[in-house]
Amino acid sequence: MQIALAPMEGLVDDILRDILTRVGGIDWCVSEFVRVTDRILPRKSFLRLAPELLTQAKTPVGTSMRLQLLGSDPSCLADNAAYAFRLGAPVVDFNFGCPAKTVNKSRGGAVLLEEPELLFRIMQEVRTTVPVGAKITAKMRLGLQDKSKALDCARALAEGGAQQLVVHARTKAEGYKPPAHWEWVAQVKQVVDCPVYANGDIWSVEDWHRCRAVSGVDDVMIGRGLVWQPDLAAQILAVKEGRSFTPYTWREVAPLVAEFWRQARIKIKPQFAPGRLKQWLALLGNRYPEARQLFNQLRTEKDCVVIDQLMQRVIL
Questions:
Q1: Can you tell me the mean pLDDT for 249-262?
Q2: 63 and 129 share a domain?
Q3: Same domain, 165 and 17
Q4: Torsion-angle region of residue 166: left (phi > 0), alpha (psi -120 to 50) or beta?
Q5: Is 210 assigned to a binding site?
Q6: pLDDT at 315 over 80
Q7: Closest-CA residue to 8 (of 29, 25, 27, 38)
């Protein structure tokens, strides 16, 4: 069994990847998507979203990071994938699941699930362009408006060369509304030869058990569940290994928030750092009342120095 940390554009950046992988239980993570259009991107475009490439594509605790690309041009995606491998990416993943309207309008993400033939051409072009033995993977949803092409898309990706599929068990139209249709992951597993990971609505150890039972797959990718509850992967791993594990309280989470803010102050421009802290606190507030209280205290504050002082009093 493996547990992967999902890529979430605008949220799970290198700072949060560092923080969440520190807690344990996460086998690998994925960068935010690098958008590919009509040319090979410069090195700085990759490093901006995946600075772990400078440290052997690992987070500070040694968790492997995969680089994700998003686009629709087979040749350009292939050339950028080859460059990503030269930069040190251990695996290049392809995003066919992003539901954002702005992304879909520019022919990226889930909109391509209407064109299984294009998915096949993309993966085939990538496979023939990247070095022999290089690992390429893909993340998909069950479709754009409906699930009628889900299995065709999965086959196209696998037959084109994807060596692993992560299936977010919802369509683009369903967004993040429950439930995730884990039974469709089971169907995907039946029509492809590569490993399949289930993704969507895993918020607890109990959800993980249910997902395994319904999907028939052991491997999962978790996004929002880990952002809300940083020790979720560690909890699941402990159950899998038959060990006891005491779920984190705010006492254990607060130092993670403090470290997040410390790094944000260094890596993010002052006008944007407060927003990133508030973003995570708001999500943590779904699990930890203390995070909600801190968010409310910081809601309107934009001055980093004032936030420093408040964090010292409340957390440290």
A1: 97
A2: yes
A3: yes
A4: beta
A5: no
A6: no
A7: 29
Asked if 256 contacts 268 with a C-beta cutoff of 8 angstroms, the reply is no
Q: Is the distance from CB of 262 to CB of 221 less than 8 angstroms?
A: no
Confidence class of residue 316 from pLDDT cuts 50, 70 and 90? low
**Rounded average pLDDT over 293-310:** 95
Supply the CATH number for residue 309's domain: 1.20.225
The reply to whether 251 sits in an annotated binding site is no
Q: Is 98 tagged catalytic?
A: yes
Same domain, 268 and 182: no
Q: Are residues 145 and 56 in the same domain?
A: yes
Range of the domain at 17: 3-241
Is there a binding annotation on residue 68? yes
- Domain boundary, last residue among 177, 206, 241: 241
- Number of domains composing the chain: 2
Residues found in the chain: 316
Q: Is 145 annotated as a binding residue?
A: no
pLDDT at 314 (0 to 100) = 76
Last-in-domain residue among 241, 262, 284: 241
- Considering the domain architecture, whether residues 90 and 236 belong to the same structural domain is answered as yes
Is residue 240 marked as binding?
A: no
Cα-Cα end-to-end distance for the chain: 36
Instruction: Reply yes or no on whether the pLDDT at 225 is more than 80.
Output: yes
For the segment 168-187, the average pLDDT, to the nearest whole number, is 98
Q: Are residues 146 and 218 in the same domain?
A: yes
pLDDT tens, residue by residue, 80-118: 999 999 999 999 999 999 999 989 988 999 999 999 999
**Tokens 């290198």 sit on residue:** 14
Catalytic entry in 98, 153, 211, 304: 98
139 is in an annotated binding site: yes
